[in-house]
Amino acid sequence: MTPFLAKVWRSRRFAFLGLSAMLLTMLPALLLVQTELQTIHSAEREVAGLKPAGDTLRLVQLSQRHRALSNLVLAGQSSQLEAWHTTRSELIQATADVVISVAQLRDEHLSVQASALAEQSRALADSVSRMSISREDSLQQHSALVNRALALVDDIANTTGISLHRQTAGHFLQSAVLQFLPAATEALGQLRVHGSLILADRKTTAVERNNLANLVGVLQATLQHASKALVLAQAAEPRLASKLATGVDAAFSASASITQLVDQELLRTSTPIYPSDQYFAIVTRAIDTQFALIGTAFQALEEELEYSVRRSRTKLAGIAAGLAVLFALMTGAALLMFRSEAARSISDARFSAILDAAPDAVLVTDQRGQVIAANLAAERIFGYSHAELIGLAGDRLVAMNPEEAKKQLKTVFSHPRLAVTRTHQFDAQRKDNSIFPAETARSAQITEEDAYMVSIVRDVSERRSLELQLAQSQKMEAIGQLTGGIAHDFNNLLGVIVGNLDLLERQLADKPEGLRRVNTAQRAALRGADLTRRLLVFSRRQHLEPVSIHLADAITNLTEMASRILGPEISIRAELDPALPPVYADASALESTLLNLAINSRDAMPDGGTLLFTATPVTIDTGYPAVQNGELKAGHYVILRVADTGRGIPRELLDRVFEPFFTIKERGKGTGLGLSMVYGFTKQSGGSVKIYSEENIGTTVSLMLPVAERLGAQASQAATASTHTAAEGAVALVVDDEADLLEIASTYLQELGYQVFQAPNAVSALTLLEQIPHLDLLLTDVIMPGDLNGVRLAARVKALRPSVHVVFTSGFPSQALAERSGTRVDGPLLSKPYVRGEFVAILERVFGERANEPTDLSR
Asked: What is the mean pLDDT of residues 313-329?
């Protein structure tokens, strides 16, 4: 082998050994990364299991309370009937929450268990409601329900791995939260049921006293285990002591009091005289204290798991940063080693080709700080030619004092090992003196002949720009969210204030001094409303040119264009009266608004559906809340409704849909400005916009636009002021799950002379109906939570009270309800939102001579 080939061989072998050493150095770090990723995945899975486990424990609490109240009701204690109704509703809602949260785990076995648990809970509640079950069967079935729920908690814990981490604070907490404390509450629940019944009967047998003694023993044993687990949790993580101390003391003290009470009042006598109601209340408070401790410990467990995730992520970030630095430094070191070996054995052209292939600038400087080698990337980044770079002082490439640059260079050569571990950012300088951010990794190589420093420089201008853009975007999003949130909450408060001031103003019509103060408060509320409107529309200051527009023509033109955009899967229908009065708005802005709503509807109906346009003329007076708070002016309007049969919007998000940048679409499929623009257009046009939506039913957006001129004969007839008044002693039942709409409808009816009863859902309405001897009018929402909707409720009420008149309300037209949910409204339908004139008009049609005419005001 020639000397030249021997040098080449040694150079390649040296490079291979260097690469092997780098991989061996990185291998332990990569194994640690894998371990931390597994830890993060496990902890996140555990956190996901906490929500369904907590919901199931809530179901356990309500099942225990329902068991106790059911047996008292079945025993004939009518004083507990109201509390039983409330607990029954909460129990049904809790079962639905369990089914939903368990479904999020995507485990078929757990979902089947949750569904079976929900079915058992509903069936048991219905049996008690119909009084078709004995006290003994009720106790047995309730206990089975509690045991089934506790078994589901155990299965959730095992499936999600909550109980896998041994000898940690989280392990001890989960033992207390998911095992011992629920068992203690079940023992208390049994003591509540049996003790209350014994005290109600004023006698006890030896068998019953023996059962009570056994329950006391179970209670004391489970509390002892729970106490030990909580002590071990605090020992493993001392910071938990302050969180758990108060709850532990209260829970254990309450349980000790119950043990003493049972011993004194029940176990030592066969004819107890302690008041049953008082005993029931004391044990109930003890159970609630136990569940409060469960909630506190549950929160501590969640915090422990989240802390584990954060700790692992921090460690992982540190490892990743270390690997990045190590890789950069090893790359620099490899280049330097290759330079010292290969430069002697391989031609300068080969070496330059290797350097030129690097995407980052590679600069080699000597001890004087002058550049002795550079690649093509260095020429491109710094703007110098190769000839200009060679021999150039290195301090010309950095935006710092030359003396400081020389000082840093001296430090690198004085401490070469220290320098190789440093990667830092600095401001670099091009030939044209422009400054740009850069990142560099440097290494020094000192030989017997000379010393060199290799610098790998990366231009991070684009990355820095993206970081700034991201920060700006996040800031704007935060501003938009904060502004919209504050304005929305403030408007809610003002809505309550203005509405109540309106009602108060009518009551003080004959009291000038009180009326003056009410008017002062109204003006202040209106100024507050004006401030919030400015916050919401700050980004929509467009110039409008309003003209007279016939909606029938505008919608016809729009549907021809929209049909091509929306596709054949979307059926577009328009049901507009050609005699509708024209509206006063900007034609182009109205078309953009309707097209925007149509596109939103298309996105909500990926599998196809129906898009429906309807309109109704209305007249609002000074008594309308929107007029009193300055949002609208009294006069004639047309309500244009755009309804779809799409997926709908979750109720908790409806209040935010008009906020700038807020969207429920997938990332990249929406800007969050569509509905904000709709809102801004209607506000600038002197109108208003409302949205009504039900998940899996559809969405209706109602635009209230002012008419272009005084209503003609047809419009006036539709909006004629009503003279309807209730007959003497008339009674109405209003059913709506929206509390504000429930109050408004009740107020309208009371002003018309009705005696009004209110119910938040169909089940409560049927219960309340038993207490109403005579009923003239049922006003019910169509879409309500639970198994009974408004149509089914009306059918049941009509079966019991055939003479009752029924009026339905909904945010959807009757066609949309029939097509999407299969709910066919057979009766007068009042569309939300409605004004007082519409409300009174439909009552005239129901009770007056026009009762047989079509009364669907959604058309």
From this structure: 68
